[in-house]
């Protein structure tokens, strides 16, 4: 029978050829939110090019330290005591991530935690691109009240069963990502993919066991907690002004960092401090230079750098500049 084309609906739009060929939807639960915190559980849902689930995987991880906010993730020291170390699961985790785009809700956090664990294990995570579902929901202009995972799930009718459990969070995200991906493909939306730079250097500071006091919040610590405070000494040199491309850095210049770096951020900041530069945590009109590997990321720092005309260099160029910093006047 011949098809009656007058009654047939429009043919579906072709799938964008530039879209990735596979995704790894990831969720990790951690001991906290800082650079010294550790992964205590991880889950991966592998999806094909169109977002269909291929398989899933989940593991506990012994962080070899206090598990942090148990009231959030529910994983006690007793539960984690017999779990494998990250080095024990690193290979299987890598197999799940390899040749896929890492997808997560607030993906920069999950990626940084994963990259740090692999750096500690003297390995590299096999991830080259990530996709944040918060960024994708903004691209799709979804009418969400906020950017919480539960709001994204509710928008697509996905029922969340165990919040802050890595396996269920990954399942929920995978189910919400599939219709998001299809909507993006149908609308010809460019996926907000960002580069992932594996850490090439890592230095751990010893983290004492918790004594008393505990957490005052997820990632915030109250009196008596085991996390040592770290405050950089004030830069002894006056700010000589903006960095001029093609010239040397000068002691006292204010340097800000944004985005992923292949060397651990704090190591870069330590080197900048040792060279006599002022490491700034925010960007203002007084900032001499912004260091970022992704100047088009749209972060608040890159946006302000464009607004103020602040010079921008990538990590490699900054590393070369650090090798020949001009002394401050009178130094």
Low-confidence stretches at least 5 residues in length (pLDDT < 50)? 1-11, 208-229
- Integer-rounded radius of gyration: 23 Å
Question: What is the CA-CA span between the terminal residues?
Answer: 90 Å
Give a short account of the largest sheet: 6 strands, mixed
Strand order, largest beta sheet? 3-2-1-4-5-6
Identify the overall geometry.
globular
Which short descriptors sum up this protein?
single chain, globular, alpha/beta, 331 residues, 10 helices, 6-stranded mixed beta sheet, disordered N terminus, 12 strands, 4-stranded parallel beta sheet
Structure description:
The protein is an alpha/beta fold and 331 residues long. The longest helix has 22 residues, at 166-187. Residues 1-11 and 208-229 have low confidence and may be disordered. Strand 7 (215-217) and strand 8 (220-221) form a beta hairpin. The chain has helices at 70-73, 77-81, 86-97, 107-120, 133-139, 149-155, 166-187, 265-274, 300-308, 315-322, and strands at 22-30, 39-48, 53-60, 101-104, 129-132, 193-195, 215-217, 220-221, 254-258, 278-280, 289-292, 312-313. Helix content is 30%, strand content 17%. The strands form three sheets. Strands 3-2-1-4-5-6 form a six-stranded mixed sheet, with helices on both faces. It is built from ten helices and twelve strands. Helix 5 (133-139) packs parallel to helix 7 (166-187) and helix 6 (149-155) packs across helix 7.
């Amino acid at each position: 029978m011949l098809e009656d084309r007058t009654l047939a609906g429009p043919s579906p739009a072709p799938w964008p050829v530039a879209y990735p060929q596979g995704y790894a939807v990831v969720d990790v639960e951690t001991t906290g939110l800082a650079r010294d915190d550790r992964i205590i559980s991880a889950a991966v849902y592998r999806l094909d090019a169109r977002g269909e689930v291929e398989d899933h995987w989940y593991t506990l991880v012994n962080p070899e330290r206090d598990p942090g906010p148990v009231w959030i993730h529910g994983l006690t020291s007793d539960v984690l005591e017999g779990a494998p170390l990250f080095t024990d699961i690193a290979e299987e985790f890598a197999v799940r991530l390899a040749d896929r785009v890492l997808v997560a809700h607030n993906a920069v956090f999950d990626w940084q935690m994963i990259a740090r664990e692999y750096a500690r294990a003297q390995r590299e995570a096999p991830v080259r691109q990530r996709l944040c579902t918060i960024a994708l929901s903004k691209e799709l202009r979804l009418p969400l009240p906020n950017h919480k995972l539960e709001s994204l799930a509710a928008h697509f009718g996905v029922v969340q069963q165990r919040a802050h459990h890595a396996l269920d969070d990954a399942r929920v995200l995978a189910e919400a990502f599939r219709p998001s991906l299809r909507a993006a493909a149908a609308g010809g939306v460019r996926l907000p993919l960002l580069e992932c730079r594996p850490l090439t250097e890592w230095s751990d500071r010893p983290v004492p066991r918790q004594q008393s006091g505990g957490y005052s919040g997820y990632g915030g610590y109250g009196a008596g907690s085991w996390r040592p405070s770290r405050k950089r000494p004030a830069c002894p040199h006056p700010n000589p002004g903006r960095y001029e491309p093609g010239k040397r850095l000068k002691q006292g210049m204010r340097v800000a960092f944004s985005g992923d770096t292949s060397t651990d951020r704090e190591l870069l900041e330590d080197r900048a401090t040792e060279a006599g530069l002022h490491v700034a945590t925010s960007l203002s009109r007084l900032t001499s230079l912004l260091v970022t590997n992704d100047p088009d990321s749209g972060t608040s720092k890159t946006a302000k750098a464009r607004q103020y005309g602040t010079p921008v260099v990538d990590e490699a160029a900054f590393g070369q500049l650090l090798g020949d910093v001009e002394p401050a006047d009178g130094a």
